[in-house]
Design a protein that fits this description.
By secondary structure, the chain is mainly alpha-helical. It has a single domain, classed as Arc Repressor Mutant, subunit A (Orthogonal Bundle). Helix content is about 60%, strand content about 10%. The chain is built from five helices and three strands.
Length: about 120
Amino acid sequence: MAGLAPPARNTFDRDCPSRTVLNHVSSRWGILVLSLLRERPHRFFLLRDRIDGISEKMLSQTLRQLASDGLVERRVRATSPPQVSYALTPLGQELAEHVQALLDWIVLRTDDILLARARAAG
């Protein structure tokens, strides 16, 4: 139905569907997967190897969640054995730009944050 405004969303409401998307995207693994896929498509094991500390189970779950949200697509090449890779959809690419800005800020300001922690602890 053209012309209808999208429903109002309130991420602060626990029943809002945007909360689920926020949880998928803002998990530590979701953020790192989106950042890596921003570079280029990756195969499962390359993602696992590049994201230190992620288990295969968590990577699989994260990819499934991001795919169900329309942010990541699973690509299968008909080879023997089949080659599976993961890439961002246009929606995922748009989001990954914002995620990368957040990661860049965190890296830039980590020393300041660690200094603040030390002051608070001592």
